[in-house]
Amino acid sequence: MAVTSLLTLIGLFDNPLTVRISPLLTLAQGAKTTSQIPVFLPESVEVKFKDGRSLSGRITDFNAKTKKVTVKSGERLTVVAMKDIDLVLFQGRVILRNNTAIVIRGDDSQKSPNQNGKTFKEPLRNFQIINATKGEAKVTITSITNPLKLQGIVNVATSKDSSYVVEQIRFDSSDQIQIQVTPR
Fold it and tell me: 65: burial class by Cβ within 10 Å (0-12, 13-18, 19+)?
């Protein structure tokens, strides 16, 4: 009880059943650990279809309800069913915006894939594009059950020196999305 009282006093406990680790991460006793993290999308994408075709452009919409992705190539918009997509590869430069500066990070094609990266497998509804023009998106992470691992991911995602950039996405038949991200 003394530990709970001390933690309540310093503001880590809102009540005896909830621990606040960061503004983006809350752990409630008996509840599932979740967190929303910002991720960034490179300027261009290559969509590889299950039938061998491919389409290059920029993702402008991701609709989890209709299970469709919209890709803009030049002036042409193409709406694609997620069930027809094998892999979405993101490439090119990334423009990261924070409160103080705009940072343009070039194509990291020399870097080995998934070096220090993470892969999240989440329900489709857990991925959302916030602003396609700026390459801003977010992922609600429910697949990481270890609070310390999740806190480490949140720390990287909210750091002023690093952000997660989406490298690739895969869809599966059980309405899940596999998102591979790398800190840059």
Answer: exposed
Q: Can you tell me the distance from the alpha carbon of 118 to that of 10, in angstroms, rounded to the nearest whole number?
A: 33
Phi, psi of 96 (to 5 degrees): -100, 130
- Alpha carbon dihedral 76, 48, 156, 34, in 10-degree steps, equals 90
> How confident is the model at residue 93, as a pLDDT?
85
Q: How far is CA 113 from the centre of its chain?
A: 16
| Cα–Cα nearest to 138, from 33, 60, 36 | 36
State how far the Cα of 134 lies from the Cα of 156, in Å rounded to an integer.
Answer: 20
Mean pLDDT over residues 118-131, rounded?
A: 95
Residue 18: both structure tokens together: 């909830």
What stretch of H or E contains 153? helix 147-157
Among residues of the chain, what percentage have pLDDT more than 90? Answer: 53
Collapsed DSSP state (helix, strand, coil) of residue 175: coil
- pTM for this entry: 0.74
Q: What is the DSSP string of 80-110?
A: EEGGGEEEEEEES-EEEE-SS-EEEE---TT
Radius of gyration of the chain (CA): 18
CB atoms closer than 10 angstroms to residue 26: 16
Query: Does 14 score more than 60 pLDDT?
Result: no
